[in-house]
């Protein structure tokens, strides 16, 4: 591990950056972000408005369409892992939960084409919603580290992940089809994509359809753990003639019940009418059944806990209309969007005939009105307003799998519906002093937020109230600068205040996060979480030679929401799914502190040979408001990163890469259980016999090689061998093992 870290320190640089775009008032330009060109020319849309990367005080990682094709990711979660700058947790193969600076899930904001994706049911644990965004439709993916509430509002405590889809182009009439086929041996998975681009003088369109069939994932054969059999699945649950049956797994490396299928559709139409530019954007993701592997692999005294645990279905729909008018210096943009998600959790205890389905539907409507004004040569003013409405419908149904008789049962959220409404206004100013090489930017945002959740008189929890309501008015701000110290050397820093309003998941959820041990029930009174983040960094670069960036960040979080032992109707436990379970509630009880350092670099060694890498180290603690001792915070990954060596040819490339993680000691795990310590290689083992858990998640290194060739005819071939040494390892806090050795092949053709 030390050798890997030293290699990173010797020379690393920021990953893929955008090439110089042509200015166009109709949209942020569609740019290939796979090659490092001039740092001066990169446009960063994660700042909501186009901005040169050198002027931003933020740490930013950009993954372009070409790089996505090279990586051949099963999902966008896998693409983020390969940056070495984003940690990703997985509870099942159909999952990927990004962690930015120790913040995860509902504390990380996802945005697609200027529209927030986080809805009122985003939970604070682990999320898999990123897999509903198709990698084939993206022009680039941008990760904006650090608080982002001034421009994007609630939830952006850890940062913003911005997804920019491909844009149609205008010009001479032509129709260009394309197709891609991929295969991954580790899961015997096939991915196919068909695309079509239509171009004319005033109208352009893009269409895309992707079908992904993922088989069961095979883990590696060589364990880092002292337990040679850790993570291997010796037996699994299936149904034979309608009866739950435990079978022996002939190949324990195969993680039975991880495979799933997904279909993604995309259409984008762009038209120009006079001085106005119009874009209609349609996206749909459909997954019929995603098994929850971490739950299905649970056994109690040799007996499976569950006979079934699936997300069935998991669907996302997106429809937006964008209108833009004006020049490059002065323009207005209106975005209207409607999103719908449909997620059902289907669960059944082992040998039980009662199968429960908790179906949650969320409709989210958003309005964004943005204004950009360049005033003189030095000052830029960005401003706007945002209005967001969430409608949540949650239903619970029990079905007898023998008789098919259905009855109403517990919903996951309030059983008579819930709504949230948020209205925000913001302004951001950017001032440049060319003589001194100084850029100063600052912004303010004011948000009004309301939540109302209603419960029926017959609710199964027998709550002592019929509704829960919440209202807040929250300001936020940011202030940052970049200062040129010397040719190619820049200092940057910022202070940012962010917030996260409690949502429907926080206030109304009923969920056994630890079956038989922890049952979350509704919380009637909560406040918004608030954070104050300080960033400092140095960037030293020389175009086409090297770029090295290092920085420090510190976030202080007040009113931190944590699950705590609670009571309902005077009782501290209740019967849930046949098990007497301790009651917990989400409460504002803690003050948290997260600090960390990062180092990213890329250095040209000779000609077209580059060495690059990334290294991030994070520490997080909290203490209860009532004065308890300091404790480890959950979602804090061990040290992680990547280093790679790459040769770029004219039409080809070859790359060797090492992904690595440091060790996570048992004493550094949070006591909340969110980090799944019991599912780690040593888990809760008392190795020293002192009555304390001595286990840890061991350090690991995973080696990959990949290469690709693009012919002038439009043929592109990529080949990769991932996990060369067939290492058996798990990402921190994950409920499944990572894939073993895999040969991945991708063939694409642009007709």
Describe, in plain words, how this protein is organized in 3D.
The protein has one domain: Beta Barrel (Maltoporin, Chain A). Helices cover 5% and strands 56% of the residues. It has six helices and 46 strands. The strands form eight sheets. It has a 22-stranded antiparallel β-barrel. A five-stranded mixed sheet has the order 1-7-8-5-6.
Quick tags:
single chain, 751 residues, mainly beta, Maltoporin, Chain A, 22-stranded antiparallel barrel, five-stranded mixed beta sheet, 6 helices, 46 strands, globular, disordered N terminus
Unreliable stretches (pLDDT < 50, length at least 5) are 1-38
Instruction: Give a short account of the largest sheet.
Output: 22 strands, antiparallel, barrel
Which CATH class applies here? Mainly Beta
CATH architecture: Beta Barrel
**How many angstroms separate the termini?**
46 Å
Judged by helices, strands and strand pairing, the structural class is mainly beta
Count the E strands: 46
The amount of helix comes to under 10%
The CATH homologous superfamily is named: TonB-dependent receptor, beta-barrel domain
How would the blueprint of this fold be written?
Layout (H helix, E strand, L loop, with lengths): L1 H9 L49 E5 H7 L4 H8 L3 E3 L7 E4 L2 E2 L4 E4 L2 E2 L21 E8 L3 H4 L6 E7 L8 E11 L4 E11 L3 E12 L2 E2 L3 E2 L11 E6 L2 E6 L5 E2 L4 E14 L2 E12 L2 E2 L1 H4 L2 E2 L2 E2 L1 E21 L3 E20 L4 E22 L3 E22 L5 E3 L9 E16 L4 E17 L12 E20 L2 E12 L3 H5 L2 E4 L3 E4 L7 E14 L3 E20 L7 E4 L2 E28 L2 E16 L6 E2 L7 E9 L3 E10 L2 E2 L30 E2 L2 E11 L4 E8 L4 E2 L13 E9 L1
Parallel strand pairs: 5-8, 13-45, 32-36
Antiparallel strand pairs: 1-7, 2-3, 3-4, 5-6, 7-8, 9-10, 9-46, 10-11, 11-17, 12-16, 14-15, 17-18, 18-22, 19-22, 20-21, 22-23, 23-24, 24-25, 25-26, 25-27, 27-28, 28-29, 29-30, 30-33, 31-32, 33-34, 34-36, 35-36, 36-37, 37-38, 37-39, 39-40, 40-43, 41-42, 43-44, 44-46
């Amino acid at each position: 591990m030390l050798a890997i870290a030293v290699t990173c320190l010797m020379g690393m640089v920021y990953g893929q950056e955008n090439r110089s775009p042509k200015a166009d008032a109709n949209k942020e330009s569609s740019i290939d972000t796979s090659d490092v060109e001039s740092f001066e020319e990169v446009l960063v849309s994660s700042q909501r408005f186009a901005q040169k990367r050198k002027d931003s005080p933020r740490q930013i990682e950009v993954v372009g369409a070409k790089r996505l094709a090279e990586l051949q990711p099963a999902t966008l979660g896998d693409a983020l892992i390969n940056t070495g700058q984003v940690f990703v947790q997985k509870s099942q193969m159909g999952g990927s939960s990004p962690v930015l600076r120790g913040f995860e899930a509902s504390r990380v904001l996802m945005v697609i084409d200027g529209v927030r994706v986080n809805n009122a049911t985003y939970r604070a644990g682990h999320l898999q919603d990123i897999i509903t965004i198709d990698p084939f439709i993206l022009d680039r993916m941008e990760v904006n580290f650090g608080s982002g509430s001034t421009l994007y509002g609630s939830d952006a405590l850890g940062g913003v992940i911005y997804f920019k889809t491909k844009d149609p182009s205008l010009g001479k009439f032509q129709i260009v089809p394309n197709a891609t086929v991929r295969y991954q041996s580790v899961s015997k998975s096939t991915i196919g994509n068909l695309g079509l681009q239509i171009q004319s003088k005033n109208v352009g369109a893009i269409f895309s359809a992707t079908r992904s069939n993922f088989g069961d994932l095979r883990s590696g054969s060589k364990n880092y753990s002292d337990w040679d059999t850790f993570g291997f699945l010796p037996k699994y649950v299936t149904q034979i003639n309608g009866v739950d049956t435990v079978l022996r797994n002939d190949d324990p490396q195969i993680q039975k019940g991880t495979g799933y299928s997904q279909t993604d559709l995309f259409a984008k139409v762009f038209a120009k009418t006079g001085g106005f530019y119009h874009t209609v954007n349609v996206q749909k993701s459909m997954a019929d059944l995603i098994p929850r592997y971490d739950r299905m692999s649970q056994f109690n005294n040799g007996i499976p806990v569950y006979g079934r645990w699936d997300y069935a279905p998991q669907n996302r729909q997106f429809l937006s209309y964008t209108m833009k008018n004006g020049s490059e210096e002065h323009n207005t943009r209106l975005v209207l969007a409607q999103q719908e998600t449909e997620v059902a959790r289907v669960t059944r205890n082992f040998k039980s005939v009662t199968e429960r389905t908790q179906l949650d539907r969320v409709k989210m409507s958003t309005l964004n009105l943005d204004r950009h004004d360049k005033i003189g040569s030095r000052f830029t003013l960005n401003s706007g307003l945002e209005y967001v409405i969430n409608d949540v419908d949650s239903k619970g149904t029990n079905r007898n799998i023998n008789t098919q008789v259905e009855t109403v049962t517990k919903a996951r959220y309030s059983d008579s519906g819930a709504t949230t409404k948020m209205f925000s206004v913001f302004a951001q100013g950017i001032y440049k002093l060319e003589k001194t090489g100084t850029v100063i930017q600052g912004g303010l945002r004011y948000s009004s937020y309301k939540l109302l959740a209603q419960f029926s008189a017959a609710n199964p929890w027998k709550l002592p109230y019929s509704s829960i309501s919440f209202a807040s008015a929250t300001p936020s701000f940011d202030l940052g600068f970049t200062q040129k110290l010397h040719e190619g050397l820049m200092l940057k820093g910022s202070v940012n205040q962010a917030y996260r309003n409690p949502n429907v998941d926080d206030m109304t959820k009923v969920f056994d996060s630890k079956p038989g041990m922890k049952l979350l029930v509704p919380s009637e009174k909560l406040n918004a979480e608030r954070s104050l983040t300080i960033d400092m960094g140095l960037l030293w670069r020389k175009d086409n030679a090297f770029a090295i960036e290092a920085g420090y960040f510190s976030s202080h979080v007040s009113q931190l929401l944590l699950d705590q032992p609670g009571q309902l109707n005077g009782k501290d436990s209740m019967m849930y799914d046949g098990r007497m379970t301790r009651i917990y509630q989400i409460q504002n009880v803690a003050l948290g502190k997260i600090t960390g350092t990062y180092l990213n670099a890329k250095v040209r060694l000779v000609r077209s040979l580059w060495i690059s890498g990334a290294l991030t180290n994070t520490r997080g603690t909290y203490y209860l408001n009532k004065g308890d001792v300091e404790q480890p915070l959950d979602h804090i990954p061990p040290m992680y990163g990547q280093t790679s060596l790459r040769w770029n040819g004219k039409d080809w490339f070859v790359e060797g890469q090492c992904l690595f993680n440091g060790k996570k000691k048992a004493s550094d795990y949070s006591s909340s259980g969110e980090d799944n310590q019991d599912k780690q290689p040593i888990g809760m083992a008392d190795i020293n016999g002192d009555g304390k858990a001595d286990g840890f998640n061991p350090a690991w290194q995973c080696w990959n090689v990949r290469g690709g060739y693009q012919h002038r005819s439009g043929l592109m071939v990529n080949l990769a061998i991932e996990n060369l040494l067939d290492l058996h390892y798990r990402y921190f806090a994950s409920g499944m093992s990572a894939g073993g050795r895999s040969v991945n092949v991708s063939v694409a053709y642009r007709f």
